[in-house]
Amino acid sequence: MPLETFKSSRPLTLGVELELQLVSLSDFDLVEASPDMLHLLERKRFPGNVVPEITESMIEVSTDVHTNHGELLSQLHRIRDSLVQAGDMLNVGVCGGGTHPFQRWSERKIFSKPRFKQVSGLYGYLAKQFTVFGQHIHVGCASGDDALTLLHSLNRYIPHFIALSASSPYFQGSDTLFNSARLNSVFAFPLSGRAPFLLRWEDFARDYFERMEDTGIVKSMKDFYWDIRPKPEYGTIELRVCDTPLTVDRAAALACYLQALCCYLMEGIEPAPAEDDYLVYNYNRFQACRFGLDGAMVHPKRHEPVTIRDDVLATLRLIEPYAETLGAQAAIEHVRRAAQEGNDASFLRRERQGTGSPEGMVDAAIRRFREGCA
C-alpha cells in the first residue's frame, strides 16, 4: 500500500505525548495498574487523550494541538491533576522518568491489545524491556518536503534534547553511569536510529517507504523507531529522543524550545542539511546519553568540539527573538535554568544519595510530578 499523502498542517503547531510510570505506593515498584487507571479515567472527560502502552505498568497521555507555551502548559497541568487524582483513588503513584530504577522487565505484563501482542511476538523479551518512558513532541509542517528538510536540519540539535530531558540514570537496580539509559533500550530495535537522508516527500514515499514495504519488514510509519520521524497522517515531524521529564513544566518547556528552534531553522539562515552531517551523529548522541549536559559534541559542519551545555546556551541566545514571537520566553528561561543547574538525572542521583534507597528516589519522583497539583 502506498504511503499516505502528507497532510498539510499549520507550521509550528505543537502536540506532546508523555509515557508515564504507574507505581505501587507500598513498595514503589511498578504495578500493573493501567487497566484500572484507564477504566477510572473513562468515567469523566479527560483533559486530553489517554491510551495504554505496551506493558500494563505504563500509560501514555497526549495533548491537543497548541500554538504557544501558555496553552500547552495549562493543558498539561490539567492532565497531570486528573492523573494524580485517579492515582490517589487507586493508591497508585504516577511519575515521569525515562526508566524505573529497579523494576525487572521479566515481571512486566503485555497489555492486551493486538498491536502490542504482535510487537511482543516479533521482538521477544525486548518488548517487555521496552517498559521505558519517553516524551514525544510533534511540530506541524506545511508539506512533506518541509517536514523532511526540518527533520534533517534538526540532526545537530538532537544532543540538546537528550541531555536536557535525561532522567534515566538507573536501570534494573544499578546506576548505569548514563544520564539517559532509556535510549539504549530503544536502540536495540532494528528500525531505530535515524531517517534516511531524503529531502523530497515523493522520493521518501516511492524510493524508500515503498521499497521497504515490499520487503515485508514494515507496514506503516509506526514500524520505524527513529529519533525523529515524519507523521504524514498528522502533518508533523515527531521528535522521540526525550526521556519523560519529572515535571510537566519541563515537558512544556522542551516542546517550546523545539518550536522556537524550528522557527529559526525555517528561516534558512543555517546551511542546508547534508548527508555528511551524520558523520558525527552517533558520537554526539552517545555523548548526550552518557554524560548529559557535560558531554562533548562535534559540530557537523565545522567539526569543532563544544560541550552540550555551552551549545544549548549559545543556541538559546540565538533563538530568543523567535521565542519572543511565539510567546515562548518562559519556556526558554526554563531551559536556560535546566542547562545551568542540571537535568533530572542529576536530581535523581542526588535523591538516591540523600535518601539512601532506590525506593526513596521513586518517592521523590512521584512527589515532584504532583508539585503544584490543584
Question: Which structural traits does this protein have?
Answer:
13 strands; two-stranded antiparallel sheet; 7-stranded antiparallel β-sheet; alpha+beta; 15% strand; 374 residues; Creatine Kinase, Chain A, domain 2; 14 helices
Report on the architecture of this protein.
By secondary structure, this protein is an alpha+beta fold. The chain has a single domain (about 15-365), classed as Creatine Kinase, Chain A, domain 2 (2-Layer Sandwich). It has 14 helices and 13 strands. The chain has helices at about 35-40, 70-90, 115-125, 125-130, 145-155, 160-165, 180-185, 200-215, 250-265, 280-290, 310-325, 330-340, 345-355, 360-370, and strands at about 15-25, 50, 60, 90-95, 135-140, 170, 175, 190-195, 225, 230, 235-245, 295-300, 305. The strands form four sheets. Strands 1, 2, 3, 4, 5, 10 and 11 form a seven-stranded antiparallel beta sheet that branches. The longest helix has 22 residues, at about 70-90. It starts with 13 loop residues before the first strand and ends in a 5-residue tail after the last helix. The model has no long low-confidence stretch (mean pLDDT about 95).
